[in-house]
Amino acid sequence: MKKTIGLLMALLLLAGVLSACGSKESSGDEKSGDGDKKQTISLAVWGSSPAETEGLEKTVASFEKKTGIDVNIEVITDNFQDAITARFAAKNPPDVFYLEAFVAPKFIDSGVLLDISGEIENQDDFYQPLLNAFKDKDGKLYAVPKDYSTLATYVNTDLLEKAGYSIEDVPSDWEGLVQFAKELQPKLDEGVAAMIFDKSMARHLSAMLATGLNPITEDGKADFTSSEKTLEYFQSLVDGQDGGYILNPQMDMGMDSAGAAFGSNKAVIMIEGNWVLSALKNEYPDVHYKILPSPTVNGQNQTMIFTVGYAIAKDSKHKDAAIEFVKYMTGEGQQQWSELSGTFPTRQSVAEAMKLAENEELKAHIEGASYGTPWTSGIYLPVISAAFDNHFQAALNGDVSLKDAMKAAEDEANAEIERQQ
């Protein structure tokens, strides 16, 4: 296995560069004639944890040993999406690369990805929300999810019991949880928050959908104002912050992250992703906690899913080898990758083989993969989410009312979308 570690600087690209790089008319059945000679494919990834790096290298080595195909791993350490976009613009894309669900619609719409709908076996075995994150509106598949994370409710049991409660007292619904946090706060030591929250839209899209609002309309525009239930949901966060019982770790507590606040016994409840588990175990081994599912909203199970897939460049000169690699990494090799990297497998059969649902610490995260909402929704989601984040911040700061903030966010996003069209 060859490994290249490089720093690719961010490039200022002209608008629409992706759409200039390829046509959507090419079929996924098109393959290159790889012949019998030894093949080498390039795989572009971003830098990750030591465990994930080891997991990738060892699983790739297993693939190389089985197939005789060499894989050249290119680690892009800065501005990954810009670097990949630049590679396509220069007509020198990697054969295979990591594709985040958040930006997948833009790459799919540009026509630069290989349609692999007919190449991936036993697609029903994947958690369907993960697979759907990489499909176009016609159901064609352009990437295969390699792993994922979900949100769940973490509860510090020591702080909870000190305040006179047990884990059974923690409500499973959002409205109940907010009220519980309000009642809990006066019983906590100074400097300890009943609940902490993340203010970005990426953490709340599933709740928005559960309250009856899709913030991205059918014509791709932003909508933050048409649902009173959605406004009530976000108002509960504003009120909680004003009341001191739902705080943002960075804004209100001077902490680096939610995991740091929770691990330092500065918060009783947080809704976070499984990425905090490593830090809780290694950096905060004395904190005791239970993990519950994300709270229901409007009576519906909901959580966010963050997933990354393997995509293949349509213009790859080694399509057969690239397809074989993706099939291996998301099929036969997935259990090895998951066990070594500590990430969650995207195939249900692998999760069952690893007995993940029997692990009380992971159960809530794993179950969320079957009903959660992937962080992806059309080509203008980056524009829409950026506008939301900016203006929701203003509401949290008390600069404007929530309704005015959401109307401003909606107007800003739609003006930018119109400019880009």
From TrEMBL:
It comes from Caldibacillus debilis. GO terms for cellular component: ATP-binding cassette (ABC) transporter complex, substrate-binding subunit-containing. This is ABC transporter substrate-binding protein. One of its GO terms (biological process) is maltodextrin transmembrane transport. The keyword Signal applies. Belongs to the bacterial solute-binding protein 1 family. Keywords: Signal, Transport. It comes from the Bacteria. The keyword Transport applies. Gene3D superfamilies: Periplasmic binding protein-like II. It holds the Pfam family SBP_bac_8. Residues 1-20 form the signal peptide. GO terms for molecular function: maltose binding.
